[in-house]
C-alpha cells in the first residue's frame, strides 16, 4: 500500500481539454486525430492544399516563363511584333526590367506555398501517403506541367497574370526588395543580350534556314537577302582592295561591238550590274554599260 500511495503522490494528472493533459504541473499535448472524409475540416484542408499546389505551380511557371524572356527580345516584339505580341510585351517589360525583384518575389511565393503544404496534408493523411502525394503533386503539378506550358506560352501567360505578379510584389515587398537590391549590387542590373557582328551574321544565317510557311509564323530570308545583310555587316572592315577585280579578269565590251544574241548571253551569264566599255584597247575605258 505504501508503494501505491507513493506512486499516486508522484504522478498526478488532470485532463485540461480534449487535446491537453497536465501532469504534476507539466502540460502535454495529445496527438491530433487524423481527419477523414466524414469531417468538414477534411474537405477544407484538402481544398487549401490543392490551392497551394496550384499557386506553387503558377509561381514556378511564371518564374520560368517571365525570366526566360530577354529584354532585347521583348523590345523587338514591342516594336515589330504582331498586335497581340506588342500588347503582351508592353505589359511584361516593366516587370522584367526589375529582374531580381521579380525573381525573388516569385521564388518567395513558391517557397511559401511549398512549405505550407505539409501543414494541411498531415491532418488528412498518414506520413507515407503524405510524402507520396507531396512529391508527386509538387513535381508534376507544381513544376513539370506549369514550366512546360509557360516556356511555350510565356509571353501570353505572363501578360495575363501580370496583375497577380504586381500584387505579389506589393505583398512581399518588405522581404523581396532588400534581397533584390543585394543581388543588383553583386550581379548587376543589366540582363539584356547584345549581339556582336559575328553573332548577328550567324543569326541571319539561321533565319535563312528556317523551314515553314508564312502562315505558320515563319518568314525566312532569301539567299540574296542573307548575302546583302551579311555584306552590310562586313562593310566596316572592307577596303577597296578587297572589292576590286584585276584588270585582266574584267569582262568588257568594245564600243564597236554589236549587242547581238551571243553578246547578250555573255552579259547575262556574267551577271554584273555594270560593264566597262573600251575604245580600241582595254586600257582606254570610255564608259560603263548599266
UniProtKB/TrEMBL annotation:
Bilayer-crossing regions: 42-69, 101-121, 127-146, 153-177
GO BP field: intracellular manganese ion homeostasis; magnesium ion homeostasis
UniProt KW keywords: Membrane, Repeat, Transmembrane, Transmembrane helix
Pfam families according to UniProt: CNNM
Residue ranges annotated for the CNNM transmembrane domain, each copy included: 38-225
A single GO cellular-component term on record: cytoplasm
Tagged with keyword Membrane: yes
InterPro entries: ACDP, CBS_dom_sf, CNNM
Coiled-coil positions: none
Record-given protein name: CNNM transmembrane domain-containing protein
Organism whose genome encodes this protein: Lottia gigantea (Giant owl limpet)
